[in-house]
Structure formats: C-alpha cells, structure tokens
Amino acid sequence: MHHIAIIPGDGIGPEITKAALMILEATGIPFQWEMIPMGESAREEFGTPLPNQSLERIRELKVAMKAPLIVPKGAGSVIVQRDGHQRRYSGVNAAVRAEMGCFANLRPIRSLRGVQSRYTNIDLVVVREITEDVYTGMEHQITEDVAALIKVITRQASERIFRFASDYATRAGRRKITAGHKANNLSLTDGLFLRCGQRVVQEYPGLEFEDLNIDNLCYQLVRNPESFDVLVLPNQYGDIVSDLCAGLVGSLGIAPGGNFGTDVVFFEAVHGAAPDIAGKGIANPVAFILSGAMMLDYLGLAVESNRLFRALEQTLEDPENRTPDIGGRCKTMEFAQKVADILTKDKK
Ligand code: NAI
C-alpha cells in the first residue's frame, strides 16, 4: 500500500485532484490517500495557509501530490514558525518547497499526441533551482516610493542543481545541458551560477554543456525548441521559462512536474490555480495526471506509469475528449472517466 499525502489546493485544485485520483485508482495500484489542508481553504479553518501540522504530516509521509495554491497578489509573503524560529517566504508555494527541503523542480515538457500546437516534436526538461535567487522573501520597502529585493545565488545550491540535472540526464539517456543566465549583466550572481554549471557538468563525460543568456534562450526556444534537451535555470528564470515551454507544447494544462529533495518529494503541475476557470469543471487535468505518472516512476512503478501515459494519449486522440484549453469541449471529469475506463478495461 502506498500512503500518499494529497494537497487538493485552491482554484481548480480540487477538480484536477478528483480527476487525477480517479485515474490513479483505475491503475489498480493500492493507494491510501491522506488529504492535507493547505492554502486559502486552510486559512479559513486554521488562520494560516500553511498549518504546521500539515507540513509535519507531509514530512512524515514523504511522498505527496500537491495541487496549486493561490498566492494573493501583493500580499503573498508568508511566515512559518518552526523550532522557535520565524521563516519568511515570498509565497505559499515557495514556502512548501523550502519547508519540505526540496531543491530541484523537474518539469518534463513533451508534445502529446492529440494536442495541437505550433510544434510537434518537443521533448525537453526544465530543471529549476527552487531554494534561492529572488524568491527568498528578502524584499524591502526602502521609502514609500522605492522597494528593493536581494538576489541570492550560492555555490552550494548551484552545484547541487547542476549535479541533480546531470545525474538525471545521465539516467534518462539525455545528452545536453543548457544553462540559462544573465551573467553578462549579473556577473557575480548569475556568473557564479554559470561557473558552477561549467565545472559540474564537466565531470560527466557523456554530457555536452552549453550556456545562453536568458533572453537569447527564450528567443531560441520559440524558434527552435527541438534543439534543447535539459535546461538548468535559477529559480525565477525557471519559473518563467517553464510557462513559456508549456506554451510550446500547446497548454499549461499538460505540463507536469516534481519537486525533489533529500527526504520529501512532491509532484505538482507547472500551472497555477487558474481562478478564471475554477468551479466550471473545464480545467485540463492532464498536467496533474502526468505528475501522478511521474510519481509512479518515482515509486518504481514504471510499467504502470507507461500504461497510464498510453491511456492518456489514446484518450486525447479523439477531439471529443479534449478540454477547452486544447480546443475541445470535454469536461474535466468526463475526460478522467474515459482514461479510467481504458485503464480498467486494460487490467481485465
Ligand atoms: P495560472 O497558471 O493559474 O493560469 C494561467 C492561465 O492558464 C489561465 O488562463 C488559466 O485558466 C490557464 N490554465 C492554467 N492551468 C490550466 C489547466 N489545468 N487547464 C486549463 N487552463 C489552465 O497562472 P496565474 O493566473 O498567474 O495564477 C493564478 C494563481 O495561481 C495565483 O495565485 C498564482 O500565484 C498561483 N500559482 C500557483 C502555482 C503553484 O501552486 N505551484 C504556480 C503558479 C501560479
């Protein structure tokens, strides 16, 4: 029995969670789900979007699936009180990642059969550093008219993310690491990140290393995305470029992800809580379902993960089964039911 923490989240979170759990159950793998309150719904009950007992429970269970959490505009920073210390974070999502000790966000970006986009053959991975850069919550009001923040890049975190990406690339049979940075203007911070990448990737003879200024990387991604393999990016560029890459394959609704640390791992889609479509039953659950497939791989269930992937692509091939973000009219749960039916039939 796999005991998994589930954070249903905000906005479309509960809808895509219901869909993803239905499909994961249809694989026949024995799961026990434990719902963990977090986000705006938890704020009502516990007075904070990040109750300590929720964080503690995820640390105990070690594997989680997390739907998106809303970060209120202009008032995003959150404080977590632990072991007599106060920790301030730039937002609730940054806080969960940090509190779980996760340092790497892995986001595979892949063209899917049945999802129209400008490109057809994309298969790249964004590896985003998630502990530092400009999201450490060190933002200050200097005067009423001036605000500033501190960008933090350390050798330790930079080497760790390049090592994580290089190990992953080697395991996955990938060939090239591209580091995105702005070292020409930010010579100390991004310069350090770049130098760490050059040094670490050199230790992996099977891997090629290249680096691009982040603006040029965005340009090249739009012109020729097929030429990229594994992108390694500091926190903020990784955040932004992930959404750009999701656009390349047709929708944010199909881009999954996983957050990795030494103790806890949790899987979440690239997209946010999509308040503009929340409650309408039309959210695309594919990104969260694929995050579930990543979890199966992590749990050593690669055969089931592939089976799930095939059922998903088979369902998407029929235009009737596509949600509005990818040009169809299908509802979230109708889509989930179709995938679940294929998996259940396949099992018999
Ligand atoms: P968003 O990713 O929620 O939405 C951007 C656009 O993509 C919207 O038009 C939305 O409808 C669409 N979209 C996103 N996911 C979709 C899906 N599964 N199916 C169909 N369409 C989908 O980004 P936005 O609007 O900037 O953020 C909304 C809230 O989510 C904010 O509070 C933000 O801070 C939070 N957020 C949370 C994240 C997380 O929990 N990891 C990540 C990104 C944003």
Strand content: 15-25%
SSE series: EHEHHEEEHEEEEHEHEHEHEEHHH
The beta-strand count equals 14
Total domains: 2
Q: Structural class given helices, strands, pairing?
A: alpha/beta
Number of helices: 11
Identify the CATH homologous superfamily of the largest domain: Isopropylmalate Dehydrogenase
User: Which word captures the global form?
Assistant: globular
Question: How would you describe this structure to a colleague?
Answer:
The protein folds into two domains: 185 residues, Isopropylmalate Dehydrogenase; 131 residues, Isopropylmalate Dehydrogenase, CATH 3.40.718.10. It has eleven helices and 14 strands. α7 packs parallel to α8, α9 runs antiparallel to α10 and α10 packs across α11. It is of the alpha/beta class and 348 residues long. The strands form three sheets. The protein has a ten-stranded mixed sheet, with helices on both faces. A two-stranded antiparallel sheet has the order 4-5. The chain has a two-stranded antiparallel sheet with strand order 8-9. The chain is globular. It binds 1,4-dihydronicotinamide adenine dinucleotide. 1,4-dihydronicotinamide adenine dinucleotide binds next to loops.
